[in-house]
Write a structure and sequence with these properties.
- By secondary structure, the protein is mostly beta strands.
- The chain contains 6 helices and 34 strands.
- The strands form 4 sheets. It has a 22-stranded antiparallel β-barrel.
- A hairpin with a 6-residue loop joins strand 26 and strand 27 (532-557).
- The radius of gyration is 25 Å and the shape is globular.
- It starts with a helix and ends with a strand.
Length: 681
């Protein structure tokens, strides 16, 4: 068995030592630079040299600091749910991952500052992502294949959590920070958090901490769906709470950077602990004890993570800067059956990235990068259906862009090697991914783009080696060690338009999959667990759809404005074996927003269509409409103090997320009032 961890750790230590010496010498010679003005529309996820959202061929959504300051305290999946083309697995309030264009699990990469989470969240839908949105200064969501920069696991999309724990710029005025608190009625939820950044000469220190807790949440109907009750021959009861949906999370971290006029080098540490319930995931009582009840399952998660990041500009030569980022994490996930320890999952490893940013010359930009990953996954207990696996990956990539105003080109190439070694067997994959695109600006307000990509994804450890009962999905899952890489060939058309009060954005796409890895029923049942046996197989598949957004400022006078907005999305997925499972139905959203210096008010309505195009063992889902009202007030001369409130699901409607394994036992929350305060200084 090959072990890459010692080699990777030595590489990162040598790189860190060299970087520290260079950045430290520069900082010692030159005082810290002034903080530049921020450009909120510049995106870095997928384009490390930075491109504005109105000039990008990628479908990108950005949640900035102002939005996040008043956003609900929730998991990452629930926070981004409802953005165009984005839904949530909605497994439980403690464990929800993003679903992008109908894809989830290992096909959607969740990152922190461009590096992987090194957790076990993609193994099962009841596993939480080891990051909380409260720590983010910015979240960028890339819809569609982004494998050129992030590797094959990003074949469906990327969600990048960007924080400031390792500062790249000094604190404004020597000290800045953020404090927030909020509470909600539907789950008796509370959250409190803050972060602080302070200068001490060339050193800049940060510290942050967040805590969040919530009880079981309420719903407007009996938790089990009408279709499930009919199948079971039962009637709805009076219960209006989804049991075992509590959440308790604590997270804290700190960082320090040495910043000079010629770059920076810094490190950070973060620790997160969370405990949450999993609805419907209960174990049968002891048959020898007639008074025993089913034991609810809760999950305790802990991760400690260390990160290193730096940037070194160059005065001359073909490259303008070099960027280094690396992270090591130790992750443990324990499933408790009542008070007893059940199955445990462990993930430990490193990930590192070195990028050379090309100097812009006559509209030509680019990046060349190297990515290294080494991770060990292990599981112990009755539901350890995947054996211990050593995963190593090396990737070399480049992305190039030529922009001369009226016309431009963009393309890239990536070579990956990924090896997986376990007791069940070893596999090694070498993948090549490439993309090419062209864009035009026939007039100043209009951007038109057309791009094509061929992306390869190596199978995950679950898809290759799984064999055992998986209670979260209600199946006995069987992997296939002979699976080949999944190949997606996609084409996407992009339209950006912005003129005066009107803005419009459209992305239409089609992706054909050769060797799409799908979990399909075999028609057999496991005699020990009484669960249906599902096997990972490969077939051909086609995903097609679109996302559209538009806004129009109806009236504007200084800082006061009234804006009408709308969005729509649709995806259809077919395989040679029938419709793909858990594909979200179409949705339409409309909103009316008033903004001013003193207060903001917004009214939004979102309609999600019925989904009756289902895979085997999958029930249809009814349509629903959710209405929400939000407001924010800045009552003081210091506009950084904001009081906010939101009434969600105003009409208290039943709503079920079709992309969720839990949709028939855990509908979305009912009417909820959320209030809070945030202060940035």
């Amino acid at each position: 068995m090959t072990h890459l961890k010692p080699r990777l750790s030595r590489t990162l230590l040598l790189a860190a030592a060299s970087w520290a010496a260079l950045a430290g010498a520069a900082a010692a010679q030159t005082p810290p630079r002034d903080r530049p003005a921020t450009l909120d529309d510049v995106i870095v996820t997928g384009t490390p040299f930075g491109v504005t959202d109105r000039a990008s061929l990628l479908a990108v959504e950005v949640l900035d600091e102002e939005y996040l300051a008043v956003a609900p305290a929730s998991t990452l999946g629930d926070l981004v749910n409802g953005l165009p083309g984005v839904r949530s697995t909605n497994f439980a309030p403690g464990a929800s991952r993003p679903v992008i264009r109908g894809l989830s699990g290992p096909r959607v990469q969740v990152l922190t500052n461009g590096l992987g989470m090194i957790d076990a969240s993609s193994v099962s839908p009841d596993h939480q992502v080891a990051v909380d949105p409260a720590e983010a200064r910015r979240i960028e969501i890339v819809r569609g294949p982004s494998t050129l920069v992030f590797g094959g696991s990003a074949i469906g999309g990327v969600v990048n959590i960007i924080d400031d724990r390792i500062p790249s710029e000094p604190a404004e005025g020597g000290l800045d920070g953020h404090i927030s608190a909020q509470a909600s009625t539907i789950d008796e939820g509370t959250s409190l958090g803050g972060r602080l950044k302070a200068n001490a000469g060339p050193l800049v220190f940060t510290v942050d901490g967040f805590t969040r807790s919530a009880s079981d949440y309420g719903v407007p109907v009996f938790p089990e769906s009408r279709r499930l009750l009919e199948e079971e021959g039962e009637a709805a009861g009076d219960e209006r709470t989804v049991e075992n949906t509590f959440v308790k999370l604590d997270q804290y971290g700190a960082g320090v950077s040495w910043i000079g006029s010629r770059g920076y080098i810094g490190g950070s540490v973060k620790h997160v602990e969370t405990t949450y319930g999993v609805p419907g995931h209960a174990h049968e009582p002891d048959p020898l004890d007639p008074d025993a009840e089913e034991e609810g399952v809760s999950i305790g998660l802990e991760q400690t993570r260390y990160d290193l990041r730096g940037e070194l500009p160059f005065d001359s030569g073909p490259f303008s800067a070099a960027r280094l980022s690396a992270g090591w994490a130790d992750y443990a996930h324990t499933e408790f059956e009542g008070d007893e320890v059940g199955t445990q999952f462990f993930s430990e490893g490193y990930e590192g990235r070195l990028e050379l940013i090309q100097r812009e010359r006559d509209g030509w930009q680019g990046v060349v990068g190297l990515q290294l990953l080494d991770r060990t996954f292990d599981a112990v207990g009755d539901e350890a259906y995947v054996p211990r696996t050593e995963i190593a990956e090396q990737g070399l990539y480049t992305v190039q862009r030529f922009d001369r105003g009226a016309v431009g080109f963009e393309g890239g190439l990536r070579l990956d090697n990924r090896s997986l070694e376990s007791l069940a067997g070893d596999r090694d994959f070498t993948n090549v991914s490439a993309s090419a695109g062209v864009f035009f600006r026939p007039s100043a307000p209009l951007f038109l783009g057309l791009s094509m990509a061929r992306n390869e994804r190596a199978p995950s450890e679950v898809e290759l080696f799984a064999e055992g009962a998986h209670i979260a999905t209600g199946a006995f899952e069987v992997g296939d060690i002979d699976l080949n890489s999944e190949v997606a060939t996609s084409i996407e058309a992009t339209v950006h338009y912005a003129s005066g009060p009107f803005e419009f954005d459209l992305h239409a796409y089609q992706a054909g999959y050769d060797g799409f890895i799908d979990l399909r029923p075999t028609g057999l049942e496991d005699p020990d667990s009484d669960l249906p046996i599902f096997a990972y197989v490969q077939t051909d598949a086609t995903f097609r759809g679109f996302e559209a957004e538009a806004s129009y400022r109806i009236w504007e006078d200084g800082e006061r404005a009234l804006t009408l907005s709308g969005a729509a999305d649709w995806v259809r997925a077919s395989t040679d074996l029938g419709p793909a499972a858990r594909i979200p139905p179409w949705s339409v959203t409309t909103g009316l927003d008033w903004t001013s210096r003193l207060f903001d008010v917004g009214l939004q309505a979102r309609h999600v269509g019925e989904q009756d195009r289902t895979a085997a063992f999958e029930r249809p889902t009814d349509s629903y409409t959710l209405v929400s009202l939000k407001a924010a007030v800045r009552p003081f001369a210091d506009r950084n103090v904001v009081l906010f409130a939101e009434a969600a699901n105003l009409t208290d409607k039943e709503a079920r997320e079709h992309a969720s394994f839990q949709k028939d036992i855990a509908p979305l929350p009912g009417r909820n009032l959320r209030m809070g305060l945030t202060y940035r200084f």
